[in-house]
Write the structure tokens for this entry.
Amino acid sequence: MRKLGVAAAAIVLGISPIAAAHDGAAIARERRIAFPKTMDGRSVLAVDLHTHSVFSDGSVWPDIRVEEAKRDGLFAMAVSEHLEYQPHAADIPHPDRNRSYQLASEAAVVKPDSQGVAGRPLIVINGTEITKVVMPAGHINAVFITDANAIRTGDVTTQLKTANAQGAFTFWNHPYWHAQTPTGVAAMTPVHAQLIKDKLLHGIEVANGADISDEAFRMALDNNLTIIGTSDVHGLIDWEYDLAGGGHRTATLILTGAETSEGVKTALKAGATVAIYNDNLAGKKENVEAVVRGSLKIDVDAPLPRTSVVPVSVINESPVDYILENVGHEGFYDEGHVFTVKAGSTFTLLVKNVPDPSKLNLTFKVLNSYIAPREHLQLTLSDSTPG
Ligand SMILES: [Zn+2]
Ligand SMILES: [Zn+2]
């Protein structure tokens, strides 16, 4: 007794006719990282703060990065070329290290007659990746900078002071990267601890591309660092993620009352983020709970005739599948205790032996959400539209 609300998915996620022409309707709809607002009215905006183009070691021109970001429904994207690593410099000399950002910004301008993906505005954020060969300091992104050239000189502390003076938000990239951390286990270093203490380093990548780190997550929680997920894309998003299979790029969800560039920056500095990785959500409990409560609802129906068996619709308005474990007292008549509610769809289950449907609530662990390493969000849901 289950049904997939295909029509509901189309309404929730929207279909862009232009994107559909390129991607096929299903991919165009499903690849967008579009979450509904939180219960307290904040927007949940997807951003990717770590991308590369041919202006460092990426394989594409910056306009391709912009096109991908629009197709993925991102609100904002940062251009973050390596400052100290420039393998294409002989072919593409660019004394101005803001050039990639300038080209991406021009590509993001919405023409008056644009439709579909092309008609959607995208905020492009100027950024850079401070790139040290060994750990520490490894790689650190500075985004919302005003001039990448000014950050080229000095040691990492000086560079971060310059970036902060420009108003930057900064975060530690892939602290577990095996090329610099052979165990693959992220660990705090005295250099990073000092940068955090001096408020020069504000966040940390818990997920980067195909990788995720429990230890980075733990460091974020213990040091009150903003939790970040990024693609760190060098090739093509379409080749690195299973978009046709419902996948999404690794990214960060921003919880903000203001759908502006400044709103994103304020939320980043306040730590109001959730990392999205392989359709898992990872973040501080209050942020993960706000995102899930905004996108997962239940609707309690009247009991089946002459029974106390009650149909309950579980409604997923998010772009990720929710894997739910029933941890409440209620037993299900037609379902095991673990089940999946597909992205943008409704799942109907029967709850048995319900004496009073108006008092029914269900308690779930959301198995694809993390509020700490190996710890899932648990929440109790009651009828979203009582009466
Ligand atoms: Zn890096
Ligand atoms: Zn990078």
About this structure: Residues 1-21 have pLDDT under 50 and may be disordered.
